[in-house]
């Protein structure tokens, strides 16, 4: 880990590539900032009291509704308007709590990030945690919009969790398409017991419309052909559209497709181990599917403050685009 020229050799890595923080020496985590680089060099040259890298204990493992000023009933899902910049996204989104790890190093960083996020339509509340470099955002704005706003502040940011200020067994899931031709990410987040939020991004598709779906099995032995039928837990012959039918993706001339929307009666916990399938055309019966990815559990709110990848010791800020699935959501 290279933090202002210092190499941390106490690195571990998990097999799944998730970042994890381990005890180590970090001489600059508390005191450095872009505007204070000269002061940092002086501190680094004279420091003899290393700071522990272990994350500070939070007031909550899952943010408390009271602590964030969040107190609401899920009897009816709150809706707000999607920002005008995302008018191509298909549906209004329900509110959700989204967590980013942002490379903030001082109160100036905090103020800059918060001021930028508060200008985005659909964001209701921003909670900053400088000690853990975590930003929690409550609102209906798509992840893509928030990610771009954070990039515009000049600071590195990674999405680390999504959910609501309530306890669900599994509140978030993700399917990653890792090529070699089609790349993408599909994110599922439980908003209420009867509503899930879905956001997706794909690159490498042929221009035009593509059907996509949740299929029964996560068996990719024969690619999409071995994922079974569309997921339909109700087995009701009167239901004309299976729950796993996600509609249509529209890829532009560059092969990129974006989607943000919601799905009634979809339970994220029931999707783990199944597959997301993208088809060559709008007709799901035209073939077994163009590509597929297994749906895996993803971190919920307050579940992932790890900063080191235990596979190769890469610090989250040092990771390059090649370390992540190509994504704009």
From TrEMBL:
<dbReference type="InterPro" id="IPR006121">
    <property type="entry name" value="HMA_dom"/>
</dbReference>
<keyword id="KW-0934">Plastid</keyword>
<feature type="domain" description="HMA">
    <location>
        <begin position="95"/>
        <end position="158"/>
    </location>
</feature>
<keyword id="KW-0186">Copper</keyword>
<dbReference type="GO" id="GO:0009507">
    <property type="term" value="C:chloroplast"/>
</dbReference>
<dbReference type="GO" id="GO:0006801">
    <property type="term" value="P:superoxide metabolic process"/>
</dbReference>
<keyword id="KW-0809">Transit peptide</keyword>
<keyword id="KW-0143">Chaperone</keyword>
<protein>
    <recommendedName>
        <fullName>Superoxide dismutase copper chaperone</fullName>
    </recommendedName>
</protein>
<feature type="region of interest" description="Disordered">
    <location>
        <begin position="46"/>
        <end position="87"/>
    </location>
</feature>
<feature type="compositionally biased region" description="Polar residues">
    <location>
        <begin position="50"/>
        <end position="62"/>
    </location>
</feature>
<dbReference type="InterPro" id="IPR024134">
    <property type="entry name" value="SOD_Cu/Zn_/chaperone"/>
</dbReference>
<dbReference type="Pfam" id="PF00403">
    <property type="entry name" value="HMA"/>
</dbReference>
<dbReference type="InterPro" id="IPR036163">
    <property type="entry name" value="HMA_dom_sf"/>
</dbReference>
<keyword id="KW-0479">Metal-binding</keyword>
<keyword id="KW-0150">Chloroplast</keyword>
<feature type="compositionally biased region" description="Polar residues">
    <location>
        <begin position="73"/>
        <end position="87"/>
    </location>
</feature>
<dbReference type="InterPro" id="IPR001424">
    <property type="entry name" value="SOD_Cu_Zn_dom"/>
</dbReference>
<dbReference type="InterPro" id="IPR036423">
    <property type="entry name" value="SOD-like_Cu/Zn_dom_sf"/>
</dbReference>
<comment type="similarity">
    <text>In the C-terminal section; belongs to the Cu-Zn superoxide dismutase family.</text>
</comment>
<dbReference type="Pfam" id="PF00080">
    <property type="entry name" value="Sod_Cu"/>
</dbReference>
<dbReference type="GO" id="GO:0005507">
    <property type="term" value="F:copper ion binding"/>
</dbReference>
